[in-house]
Amino acid sequence: MTMTDSRPDAGRSAVTRRPMRLFRNLSSKLALMPLIFTAVVIFLGGTIWTIVYSFTSSGLLPRLNWDGLSQYERLWSSRKWIVSIENLAIYGFFSLIGTLVVGFTLAALLDRKIRGEAVFRSIFLYPFALSFIVTGLVWQWILNPELGLQNVVREWGWTSFNFDPLNNPEIVMFGLLIAGLWQGTGLIMCIMLAGLRGIDEDIWKAARVDGIGTVKTYIRIIIPMMRPVFVTSLVLIGAGIVKLYDLVVAQTSGGPGISSEVPAKYVMTAMFGGQNLGQGFAASTMMLVMVFIILIPWAYLEFGGRKNG
Amino acid sequence: MKLTTKLLSATAICAATGVSAADLEVMHWWTSGGEAAAVTKFAEAWSATGNTWIDGAIAGGGDTARPIMVSRIIGGDPPAAFQFNHGRQAEELIEAGLLLDLTDVAEAEGWADIVTPPALLDACTVDGRIYCAPVNIHSWQWMWLSNDAYANAGLDVPTTWTEFAESAPALKEAGITPLAMGGQSWQQNGSFGVMALALAGEEAWLEVNRDKNAETVMGPDYARVFEAFGAAREFSDGLNVQDWNQATAAVINDTAGAQIMGDWAQGEFAMAGEVAGEDYSCLPGLGEVAILDTGGDAFYFPKQDDPEIEAAQKELAALLLSPEVQVSFNSAKGSLPIRGDVDLTSVNECTQKGLDLLANGNIVPNGETFLAPDTITQLNDLMTEFWNTPAMTPAEVQEQYSDIIASAE
């Protein structure tokens, strides 16, 4: 009995040894299950579902009636979509550079151990606590020519002063940019400040001994050391740019005309205003493609390059 | 979830006490002064029956409110009733079987006999079943003029669009913006629709909107409309407002000469204590072709599992069309009642003009009954782009307009 039993047992243990690895750290893997489920079903599943339905002529409700590429043809022949992409590019470029430069400068200034640092830090971070809708409304009022800045300056006596970015199609994106920077730089400043605090004091001492100036120390030594902090900031800013929507709705609702439309707003208007889900899905698929176009080369440089080196 | 619990508890209370009172959440986008005053008439009438009206007002107009309503219905948490405009907006919701069939209420109340014009009930009907309760008639086809603004400029109040266009430069010289126009795209496209019907005439308008004839858009009748719309763009220079009621306020304050806006604007004049004929004038069909389009609002009732709620929904539907409620609501809103057998309590000069046109059958269906929301969105985008791009010529916009009409369903 024991002899006959031991043989199959030995075979079984060989089979069960491999799954053992799968069940290692079982509790932590179980704990991750909801997250894995969310990632696969909600993110991946939702993305695939959206892409599939972008090839249909779905109206108010999703339906699987194939329509080929016609949603994409219409999308790319739409003036509004082209304007949206251009606007996002303008906003993205200036927002990225502006947020990084202003955020880092503020952080560096605070890092010079000025008096009342906590007060300034709170003031700079405060706008981040507001929702984009509130920010948008506040700046809509400030930039309103009849109520806001222009009117105040004119009442001081400079009657020809002209500053109405939200009513001028040429510069309306910069009106949005002002509000976006006001809201976003505080957080980036805090992250940068944390990064600066993580730099060893000895680095500064060594630089001083070598007679390197403060600005040069920052640019040549400190910033390269803060690479991970910059990557975090870039990801945060980039995500904020692509999903730019509520600020536009609150500040200009896409106007004047269609001059401050952005892709996310195009998606919303097509899906719900126009009751044309297919068109909205096609537009959001294109947004995803754009993100990949930017992300893939970066990810390749960041992670692929290291493998070779 | 919250609503479901509320409804469940409401049902539980009903079952326990044996009184059939229900809490119905009603969603709408009536938030301006005149509109809010009107909707309380509904709420009061409904409360008087022992039920509770839970007001679900959404600010920001139909474009903001409709997605919220639709997502709640599709998401399985529908309100008990919601407002849409007459037309094709709810078409797919009906086809998907998400809305309550009101045919038995309509038959019991004899809606087929009382609703005038009958086209309003047709807009509610899909495959012979009735799915909505029309509550009012609104027409876009109006121009509102400030008598004082013209008096201040030393001019007579114009009686036609042509006269208005001629008087515009003099008005501008007197420091008054001739035409008030809000910045939202639906206002610009809507005004264009008014000018199309008034200047190109009923026949051409129907060919474009009903028959989707792109050649008519390129024809001489419509070319004249695009030219006039281009002129209107210049008349509105110098006034930066967003919402339609801000533009109406400019006419009320006499800083603007006129506004093209539907008859709902009259609620704002009434709220400001202005008197038709004395403080402001109105021109149906811009004084050119006096035909009203019959748009307006209707209430739809999403299907609910609870028979108690369903009974209350039907009760509400019948109440909305009852003579007393029709009078009190439409008097407050400045709209026309959907039944021909009631008299409005206080009819001013402008409302009387509207009632006469309605009684004489000088009406066309609303543009939204012909065009799908998708097409209207495209036209909105085009017209607002034109309005805000001085370099864009009427010929260019005409070309693009005809492309959209050609591809419309």
Structure annotation, total helices of chain B: 20
What is the number of beta strands of chain B? Answer: 13
Order of helices and strands of chain A: HHHHHHHHHHHHHH
Shape field of chain B: globular
Our measurement of the CA-to-CA distance between the termini of chain A, rounded to an integer number of angstroms, reads 59 Å
Explain this structure:
- The complex is a heterodimer of chains A (309) and B (409).
- Chain A has helices at 2-22, 26-53, 70-76, 79-111, 117-125, 132-143, 149-155, 172-197, 201-209, 214-225, 227-242, 246-251, 263-273, 277-308.
- Chain A is mainly alpha-helical and 309 residues long.
- The model of chain A is unreliable at 1-11 (pLDDT under 50).
- With 409 residues, chain B is α/β, with parallel strands linked by helices.
- Helix content of chain B is 53%, strand content 13%.
- In chain B, helix 10 (185-209) packs antiparallel against helix 12 (220-235) and helix 10 packs across helix 19.
Explain the layout of strands and helices:
The complex is a heterodimer of chains A (309) and B (409).
Chain A: H1 2-22, H2 26-53, H3 70-76, H4 79-111, H5 117-125, H6 132-143, H7 149-155, H8 172-197, H9 201-209, H10 214-225, H11 227-242, H12 246-251, H13 263-273, H14 277-308
Helix pairs in contact in A: 2-14, 3-14, 4-8, 4-11, 5-8, 6-8, 8-11, 13-14
Chain B: H1 2-17, E1 23-28, H2 33-48, E2 52-57, H3 62-74, E3 81-85, H4 91-95, H5 103-109, H6 111-114, H7 119-124, E4 125-126, E5 129-130, E6 132-134, E7 142-146, H8 147-152, H9 161-173, E8 177-180, H10 185-209, H11 214-218, H12 220-235, H13 244-252, E9 256-260, H14 265-271, E10 280-284, E11 292-294, E12 297-300, H15 307-320, H16 323-333, H17 349-359, E13 363-365, H18 367-370, H19 373-388, H20 394-407
Parallel strand pairs in B: 1-2, 1-3, 8-9, 11-13
Antiparallel strand pairs in B: 3-12, 4-5, 6-12, 7-9, 7-10
